[in-house]
Write a structure and sequence with these properties.
33% helix; homohexamer; Arginase, Chain A
């Protein structure tokens, strides 16, 4: 594809601090029609079991994303030169009724899928990923693979008695529903104290590959990236980037920080290593501005949104070619 | 009553920054048995329509309440000399299921009532006051009067379609349920832009007395206090102190700040003016630490918890006498 | 005028934290055509002599202005019911060349005037008001009156040798250029230490009426409002609201704070008192987010933007009637 | 006196953010020789019973005092035109040994007195005022009067068993030592909960006049100022300004904040009302930067340092005349 | 040992933000009787030579420790399944008299030792470790080994003239008193500019092994851990974790930060490597909340408290077996 | 050289928080006469294209530099024992007129050069380095080499139309003017998204050696240091340390942060590796306190100022020998 019509504001004419804050200063659009990648916010955190605030994530990630420029210096990918990308705004999700909210999210993402665009969303807490996956699964008809950057496996069963839906359970539900193929799930950066020594037994029994931070620290990004490609192959894959995969010194603004995390440099190497995967959607979740410090977490989130966009734009452009 | 057994930590022996943080350094108790006033936290904010965080209110109010001393220099009331007061901890309310949470709160406060203590709670968002009122109403069998310090009337009907229960609706629901007597409700400090010019029409039609901040500014605290006493009389009254009644410069840590509010000095004059009312319960709500600045809002909340305790302790000691 | 077509997002459907941040959630428009009042940002602070940062003002005022609702509870004015109001974005002003920037601002406001809308802008430092006044003056052909809320007179001559244009000089320049009529200028809230005991001699000699904070404190808002109306009359008047008129405890995020300032409650009484003036433009300036605390100053700025909009919308609707 | 040689940096040539931070940009001097008023820092907080940090007060007050200009717009006093004023640096007080520290402070202030200058110091916690008073008393040979702006009386006897010297006891010690004349002590702004209803009985028995905040609020500054003059008369008086007299919304950075305090506008009226007293020394204490918010408390402290300097400079210039 | 009776609050029933804040939500106990490990706070910072605030450490570490769960995912240790652990509160140490404070701390820890529990304390500045070591030494009768994680050697002689006791001198004093065996002391992470090139000469002459950060960076944690075991052997060892060993980006809230420090990931590898040592006590010190950023340092402190608890619980359980 | 007369304040007598804040507590001097290295502030940020604030850099770096001690524990260099070092204050640069400001800076540095001292400056934004280089070049008459630690190449041509001078262009201008020898320029740490994939083509065509962060991460500091020495040789070299070379988690207070940066530990290894170069001047720039968090960035800046001083002092002492 040549010469996409949707272009971000030209920073050589308009200073970065000026203008409406859209994702990476891309055009604001009312729908995903005509887009290859739809940047969309999901401002909802009703699944949060401890410190809420991710509902404010999309706005602050938009703010900090003004610092993004057009091209990736490492990969040479310039996403706005490859595909049509725009900011379709936020899904209108009410904060009071959890099940209704999940339906609203699924419906919003389904619209994007129907219009032929890939969703690249900004949460919101990690439970938002469940209805996103449902929508994509519905559109594509096959169980999806998953690359999950996270401090937590998020495969618990229930919380506070009998609550099935929290940000600690989305991937268990998605597996149970057939939305995800557990043997094509890889979780990277898992760490932190656990409720129980056997907390991850169910996940492992399903076939999920968990790469704890200690294993990652020994192997390094290149080796882990190879395993990701082996595991995911060419089938449709979703990438979910929970900001708490990053060390809290670099991403303090999140609900459940765990020390000893990935550095941004390591995570950049990992995400850039996803080039070549058949990425059909992605998200950045759990950026919680009320717990952020000077916007630093939102900047990390915005940068990984850009890194993911580069991977997705290249994947999409090849599909289109 | 003489020589209550429950006493706060002696600051002349243990520095204020030392020891477990309980409300005003009072003893931690597992139940309200034997207490006159039960200090209790309700860490829940599931009714919040905009910026959440009041779930963290009890903990930070406890922290800042270490600065409280034993006696009120203005009224001369020393509550721990008058009645038995202790901190019975937080109600265990899960953050995921709204209706279940309201039931948990009502049950927790009912227990306190059954044990014969008056509840003095710290929220939590303003929807927590609804189940508290239900519990007290159930225990007493008569509709309650209400003195409400607030920037907002909180008598709206529904939000986001058909949601009946949010922190903008508790007093409408309480009136509908017969828990509150609308002709004995007075709201002080109301202000801020409104959704509709007629937004308060329903409330006024029920007989609620709204004292907007502009009226308050003209009349001053003494005159308003007189009206409160005329309106509330001797029948059981509940006092709810939404921290957003206070100007955001003094109480920034709240979900829906409105400029031009009460000063703390004005509010102290108002609360101290409640002496003589038949106060059967009270609360401080909407302290939202994630939006606070240096603990200042929690300190304001803690100080009004103390001011309310003075009023309640005196009222209770007279009842007991 | 009935049923304006431009309406803000409906908060009963879309939560306040969701969606693109425009001024008061009004529609984003590419031009002022068809508007009565054009909300516009001027993100530039090149005239600042001490602490810069007001270039970031428009973005954060937009953010906090999500908290504004449709109607003014005190005056009953619902601006979006009276006139067409929208957010026309920010002027594209480069931060490097001061004289070029002033020209860019003047040109941008001239476009708005040519399209028939009244400009209601958000700065930027106070020097931005000079080119705004120039543009309005050019469009109207008569010297303008000025109601200035401010801690500083901003009528100095030169800074750092021979610099004529800083945020301390705009009104001297505007008088010299015939843009303002000095006998119809009133400055309210002036205070703070001065470079020289005679610092305001020039201003007074021109006929500018300076109401120092001490005089204001004695007289109160109602009396001062009367004087404003006597002085300004029916001729075209501009209202400039330098956020530093407000006490730094309520508006810390500004470049040159001076203690002992107006409270927001006092300032609301003053601005609401401007109803009936022939307001042809207005601004809120000197909100400096890097020095703000938790967005409180931006919230004050957003609220006064709304208060000014109410006054302007009423004035405009009468003109149109 | 005409044409003092010590002058602050000229802000019309050097921006306020430039240059070494001295008090009000006055010259840094190694000693008080030749000075009328010696600005001096006392960075010590070893007497603090709760939250320390006032040791960092002098540095941050210096920082914020760059915002001060040459003249007082209300009184017309330009202190640097009247007398010789300079910054003699900080006393070198070690933070480990309390009694040794008190001796170091007394010695440092004695040197200033011996050189003929009046000390205007910045603390440090309120215990620093005790050795300052001792030094001035020693130099002058008569018990001093005291105008104390404060939330707390600071006339307690002992803390934590048998500790005689804390920031809660200085004025009791000073009275016992004959350094202060208790019948010429007036304390303004006292408030906050108390350890005991009779906590101030000793102070009142000595003849100290306590004006609680509630009395102040009723009478206003002018009436209180009159009483100050009646009480203090023409004999030597010391003025101590504990920053916690100011409301915590305006001065959060202090160790023992109490809500409902003086506004800065009220306090300015009070301090300006001290003109005509025979002020022989003054201080601003208890500014605690680690608990400050954006330097706001230090700015309040710096401004009152300037207000006190104006009063002292005028008093001194009359003495000299 | 099986089925310890002391158990933390169950997070599957009570949300993490609810309830009184005790260390890791363990039960609050009045004494150490019946415990294997006593978690205890020492809120005192009278030995601090620069920026104080560590007196507030225990409270904030308790707050953040709510995020800890029951088991260590790396080692599989679940301390509450192995031994009896509870929070015995804070030692009541007054902040005014240094020598009296040291005696109070020693007495408090001696009580814990007498009751048969191992102390795991949270400071407080690093001088608190001296009386803790004295108490353990007295209880055990042999000089102790020491594993010290720190940016500073803390083996200086005197400060500010002749002060022997500051947070820069504890280990020199402990060696002089025979409390520590200098040949079994290893210090890891030492860095930062020094007062004198030969500053560590005394320490090295005593036989202390200093591993500067540069040496650590070259060797990595595994190799250093081996040396620790060689040096310490099976004899009783104390572990002191000064939070400033960690890089200030990860632990800003401390009095004397030094850049270029350990990452938390490195430090976790080091502390986990201590399994097998005969740990008879441990502490986390120098967490200074007034200088912290969003609680991040307290979270790091809480996590290392948990890591140390895992090591101690395993050691204790083997002793008991 | 032996026994330099200029010495910093002795921290064993005066606590670090006491006294006027000069760079590393060195003596304040009115001129550079008699100095080997002149520490000088350049408080100007008029070249900043996005977030300003570096004008406040010198003051906060001075503040945090109080934490520096006399000697480098790694290299053993004690700069104040080797050469004469003092703080000559800030250049008086006005913030309004860009070209005039560049002239003021060049003149100020030229004075230092004329007096025979090496300038070690603290910015200010990166455009301040251009006039510094001009002044040194003028004094020495040969094109200089450059070691640049930075996230950005700063070799762009123009901004916002036709603006030649911004903080994104200094090294392009310096090469065009013959001030720098492009073949002896090495840039380390470059990263972040770019305006154009070919953004660095001009720089590379001139012969500039760019070491992107990815290359650095693979090679490590030692190997890169070797290349620096090969490239720079013995000819005069300038070292510019843009604080944004450091990861934003460690240095958040800067205008254009880019994640994935150098750690301070890596950067210390790099700067220490510069020993032996013929360093004729150096700077630390782009520390922007309004965007800093708790002074952490200023501390990083102060520490690298010290590291650079060590390298320069050694180089100078050898020249003198």
């Amino acid at each position: 594809m040549k010469n996409p019509v949707h272009q971000p504001v030209d920073a050589s004419l308009v200073p970065r601090f000026a203008g409406h804050a859209t994702f990476m200063r891309s055009p604001a659009k009312a729908s995903a029609a005509g887009l290859d990648v739809a940047l969309v916010g999901i401002p909802w955190d009703g699944g949060t079991t401890n410190r809420a605030g991710a509902r404010h994530g999309p706005r602050e990630v938009r703010n900090q994303s003004s610092l993004m420029r057009r091209a990736n210096h490492q990969s040479g990918i310039a996403p706005f030169d490859l595909v049509e990308v725009a900011d379709v705004g936020d899904l209108a999700v009410q904060p009071i009724d959890l099940l209704a909210a999940l339906a609203q999210i699924e419906q919003g993402i389904s619209s994007i899928c129907l219009e032929g665009a890939l969703p690249l969303s900004v949460g919101g807490d990690h439970l938002t990923t469940l209805p996103v996956l449902r929508a994509i699964h519905k559109a594509r008809g096959v169980p999806l693979g998953l690359v999950q950057f996270d401090a937590h496996s998020d495969t618990n069963d229930r919380y506070f008695g009998d609550n099935l839906y929290t940000h600690g359970t989305p991937f268990r539900r998605a597996i149970e529903e057939g939305v995800l193929d557990p043997r094509r799930i890889i979780q990277i950066g898992i760490r932190g104290s656990v409720y129980d020594v056997d907390e991850h037994a169910w996940a492992k029994a399903q076939g999920i590959r968990i790469i704890y931070i200690e294993e990652f620290a020994e192997r390094g990004p290149d080796d882990v990236v190879s395993e990701v490609h082996r595991l995911l192959g060419d089938a449709p894959a979703y990438v979910t980037f929970d900001i708490d995969c990053i060390d809290p010194s670099m991403a303090p603004g999140t609900g459940t920080p765990e020390i000893g995390g990935l550095t941004t440099r390591e995570a950049q190497a990992l995400v850039r290593g996803l080039r070549g995967l058949n990425v059909v959607g992605a998200d950045v979740v759990e950026v919680s501005p009320p717990f952020d410090v000077g916007g630093s977490t939102a900047l990390v989130g915005a940068t990984f949104l850009f890194e993911l966009l580069c991977v997705m734009a290249e994947a999409r452009s090849k599909t289109r070619a």
